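Record 1 of the preview.
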Amino acid sequence: MIPEEVFAETLLQFLAPIRAFLDDPTVSEVMINGPRQIFIERKGRLELTEARFQSDEDLAAALLNMAQYVGKHIDAHHPILEGRLPDGSRVEAILPPASPDGPHVAIRRFSRDALTMNKLLAFDALTPDAAELLRAMVHSKLNVIVAGGTGSGKTSLLNALSSFIPAYERVVVIEDSRELKLQQAHVVALEARPPDPRGRGKVSVRDLFRATLRMRPDRIVVGEIRGGEALDLIQAMTSGHGGCLSTLHATHPRDTLSRLETMAMMSDVQMPLLALRIQLASAVDVIVQVSRMPNGSRKVTHVSEVHEFSHTEHAYVVQDLFVRKYDRDPKADGALGDRLVMTGSLPRSLPRLREHGFDLPAAMHEAHLSKGKQHDSSVQSY
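->
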């Protein structure tokens, strides 16, 4: 049997044209559009490189070797490959005939060093007051969903939030493809896997979720919600498994709830829509929305608390606690600036935070007093 380190080095030799980018810590993504067009993402911006594979056959050989490395199969009948490289980078590849112009590959790279909350503060991704609030919420076992578009920094923020989980808790992590680097001592990492070419051995996220509930988790972290497992997570959140963390693709808090609702309906459990909505609103406590800015930076745009599903308005009631504001800076030739500001609203979860020994940042109390009896535009129904 070939030792894994030898296999890994052989694979990297097939990827020689892009190896310099795989070793470059400033590169976050490598995008291969056929053998002769290779882009990279650096600091949130795309760059066309001069790197080339010699032919379609060379690129296809690299992908076949990659599939063998992760124990999967790729050919014209199975043209999609999901896997990861030896360094943990995530790979998505599509072969002809699904990609008529030739093989297309996207390699998402992850920092070898965990992105800490202090680093996020240094990047102005959020403010110290918002970080202090999130620390209290995570420690107090509120259920938190991190939502955002592709490449918006969801996984990085979830890693940072995980540092707020007490060290004495047992954390079970469920992922489609392993990406999270939690910073606790007692972490059980589980990874789904697809069936082999004969259709055997499939282990889905839902299979792992059901098994997890019998493994005495203090916390359940789902790397990304993609389908019917949304209903399993919602039901776990409402049945005594507090403090769940997860991510999903959505561009606004209202879209986050709609997406969760839609994915929960993809499960094999039939449930009246109203019952699902009530349970969803009870399950999710906090939505942290992230976005990639025009300059390529990733920042938190909303910290919002989910209150309930309103029977009278037939909508989710959500209260924004922090919102990112955009304005023109006259000192910078009218360039668009942004800042994360508190709305002046106090979270309904404040009594729960105090039960766990936390309070809100002093600035949030001050903002609430300044707001006085003005109309509360931070409470919205979706």
